[in-house]
Write a structure and sequence with these properties.
By secondary structure, the protein is an alpha/beta fold. The chain folds into two domains: about 120 residues, 3-Layer(aba) Sandwich (Rossmann fold); about 60 residues, no CATH class. The chain contains eight helices and seven strands. A hairpin with a 2-residue loop joins β6 and β7. It is elongated and about 65 Å long. The C terminus is likely disordered.
Length: about 230
């Protein structure tokens, strides 16, 4: 899931003031932002109170099923069409993908109310960790399903740095070194690293990504994947 955090309200205020937006519709997300406690009903009502303290009117609000799903977002907007049309702008409490989806679904100016932090694993309620950077060149088959690119602060592929001490990371000193974890898990499974991993092939992470299951296109024109 995409982990988000609240955006600086001073910046949000500037965005709205720049277009003299007095009437605001708020859109949240029923998936990631709700789980992260940044874009569910509770957070929308908090945002509503702040906007009203600024002297603005909240024409309405909605928590779509998932903000980055264009069809679902269009449906949520249609259900509140009067409130959306009555607004000067839409404030979106969702990740950047959700903001762009809402902008595709409505004709009003759309502004983000959150910052997208990282793709996160839910460890337990309210605790999230970044474990994947979606690099397009996965090495988890060689590293006991522990990503060194993401979980090592230095992104080292083939072993610990010279600063590792007593099994702990040099940068995040209260955490075990990623490569110590990898070696221990491999040993517990009776496995070992087969070879030194080559440098990452960043060409596999071309932007923007696109997959069309209807046409069988699993990437973009120009992809070199075999």
């Amino acid at each position: 899931m995409i982990i988000t955090r609240p955006r600086d309200w001073a910046r949000i205020k500037r965005n709205l003031d720049d277009i003299d937006a007095k009437r605001i519709f708020i859109m949240g997300c029923g998936q990631c932002a709700t789980v992260a406690n940044t874009g569910g009903e509770k957070e929308i009502l908090q945002a509503k109170a702040i906007l009203e303290q600024q002297g603005r009117t909240v024409t309405g609000w909605a928590v779509g099923e998932v903000a980055c799903h264009l069809g679902a977002t269009k449906l949520a907007a249609r259900k509140s069409i009067g409130s959306v049309e009555d607004a000067d702008a839409v404030l979106v409490l969702a990740c950047g993908a959700g903001v762009q989806t809402v902008a595709d679904a409505v004709s009003k100016p759309v502004f983000p109310g959150l910052e997208s932090a990282f793709l996160g694993n839910v460890i337990r309620h309210g605790i999230f960790e970044e474990r994947c950077q979606m690099c397009g060149d996965c090495v988890l088959d060689e590293t006991a399903a522990i990503c060194p690119v993401t979980t090592c602060p230095k992104g080292l592929l083939n072993g610990p740095c010279g600063g590792m001490w007593n099994g702990n990371c040099e940068v995040l000193r209260d955490r075990e070194c990623t490569h110590v974890r990898i070696q221990r898990r491999l040993a517990e499974q009776g496995r070992q690293r087969r070879s030194v991993l080559p440098p990452k092939d960043f060409s596999k992470k071309l932007k923007p990504g696109s997959i069309n299951l209807r046409t069988g296109n699993a990437g973009r024109k120009g992809d070199s994947d075999e």
